């Protein structure tokens, strides 16, 4: 039965959340955040809006505190931490805040997660303002903001099927080996339109075997040929680059990356080479994804599909509603045109957008934030992690 009314959609999403999302990690101590908004308006009048200060998530007794005996200083070079890289910009800021919030809420040891946030040099809100807003929203967060120079890649970007895919910041993942501190040997890269509903440490513990550079959920049933133009497949030489490989589609919004091997293999340059070919002869239509497929497809460490339930934003044209894939869920990903915060504000949400809503810290959620138990947070620990969709 297809539910058509907002109340029914919200109830359906709530039931899915309670029954099928993995249990909360028991190592967290949560100190309620203040119900006070922090906001920022930049000099050019661009309003970032206001955000509620998040609850303070602390390590449980079984966690090894990374800040003990270090005067509360946590280094971005600490290899014992879980390192997560994300972009940070004014357009997707609300998504990034919700994504960070979700990871802290579900992490077994939230103080042991370090966020590497990459902001564009010429964002309408400066990297400094974005950094201040993150600090105000998450006062005890371990993070560092890096500046990405858009001129590094802007001349390599081709037109895409959707204008948003042409944003230079979408290509920051290509340059993580250069942007992040050289001491960062390994990182999880995540898009900003995700929420994590499981312990991020589980994804961090993925082993990259046989000298693989990246790990990601693969989808070998997908029609791989559609990610490239007929001009690519008819070229006498280009399809031969897949020779000896069994390429499968993977989504670059969730990747575990070995940055040591990445830097040693000059993989940034390999991606740029394909972007240069694209400028001369159009071989794909989908932004930053195809170069990754050309370089890595067929040599990716396969990660369980639960770590990227993608496509929830619909296709790249209509952004229509989608349902979850069959199976357990650890990460939900609104890839595609539709974003949950936009659809919720326009009062035309898809049912699954209500799963994103509890992590939203935007100001108009203050009343909801007064009672975070509304969505059964305390009872989720009683659910089994191995639940599957019917």
Distance between the termini: 14 Å
What string gives the helices and strands in order?
A: HEEEEEHEHEHEEHEEHEEHHHEEHHH
Radius of gyration: 21 Å
Number of strands: 15
Structural class: alpha/beta
Q: What is the number of helical segments per DSSP (H or I, 4+ residues)?
A: 12
The low-pLDDT segments are 1-7, 14-20, 23-29, 366-390
Overall helicity: 10-25%
Walk me through what this model shows.
The chain has helices at about 5-20, 95-105, 125-135, 175-180, 200-205, 230-235, 260-265, 265-280, 290-295, 340-345, 355, 365-370, and strands spanning about 30, 35-40, 45-50, 55-60, 80-90, 115-120, 145-150, 185-190, 195, 215, 220, 250, 255-260, 300, 330-335. The chain is an alpha/beta fold. Residues about 1-5, about 15-20, about 25-30 and about 365-390 have low confidence and may be disordered.
């Amino acid at each position: 039965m297809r539910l058509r009314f907002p109340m029914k959609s919200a109830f359906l999403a709530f039931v899915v959340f309670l029954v099928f999302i993995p249990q909360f990690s028991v190592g967290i101590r949560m100190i309620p955040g203040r119900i006070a908004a922090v906001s920022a308006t930049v000099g050019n009048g661009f309003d970032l809006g206001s955000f509620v200060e998040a609850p303070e998530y602390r390590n449980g007794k079984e966690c090894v505190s990374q800040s003990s005996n270090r005067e509360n200083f946590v280094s971005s070079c600490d290899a014992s931490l879980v390192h997560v890289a994300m972009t940070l910009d004014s357009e997707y800021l609300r998504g990034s805040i919700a994504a960070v919030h979700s990871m802290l809420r579900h992490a077994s040891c939230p103080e042991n997660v370090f966020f590497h946030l990459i902001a564009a040099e010429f964002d309408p809100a400066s990297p400094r303002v974005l950094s201040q807003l993150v600090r105000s929203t998450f006062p005890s967060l371990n993070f560092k903001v890096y500046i990405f120079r858009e001129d590094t890649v802007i001349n390599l970007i081709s037109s895409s099927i959707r204008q948003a895919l042409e944003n230079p910041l979408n290509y920051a993942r290509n340059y993580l080996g250069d942007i992040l501190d050289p001491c960062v040997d390994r990182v999880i890269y995540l898009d900003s339109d995700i929420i994590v509903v499981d312990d991020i440490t589980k994804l961090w513990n993925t082993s990259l075997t046989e000298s693989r550079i990246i790990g990601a959920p693969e989808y070998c049933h997908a029609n791989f040929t559609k990610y490239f133009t007929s001009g690519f497949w008819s070229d006498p030489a280009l399809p031969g680059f897949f020779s000896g490989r069994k390429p499968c589609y993977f989504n670059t919004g969730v990747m575990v990356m070995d940055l040591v091997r990445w830097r040693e293999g000059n993989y940034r340059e390999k991606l740029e080479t394909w972007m240069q070919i694209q400028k001369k002869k159009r071989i794909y239509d989908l932004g930053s994804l195809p170069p990754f497929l050309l370089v890595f497809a067929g040599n990716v460490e396969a990660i369980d599909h639960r770590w990227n339930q993608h496509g929830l934003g619909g296709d790249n044209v209509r952004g229509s509603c989608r349902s979850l894939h069959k199976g357990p869920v650890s990460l939900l990903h609104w890839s595609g045109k539709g974003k949950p915060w936009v659809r919720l504000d326009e009062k035309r949400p898809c049912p699954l957008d209500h799963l994103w809503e509890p992590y939203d810290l935007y100001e108009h959620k203050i009343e909801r934030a007064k009672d975070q138990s509304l969505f059964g947070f305390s009872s989720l620990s009683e659910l089994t992690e191995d639940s599957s969709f019917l």
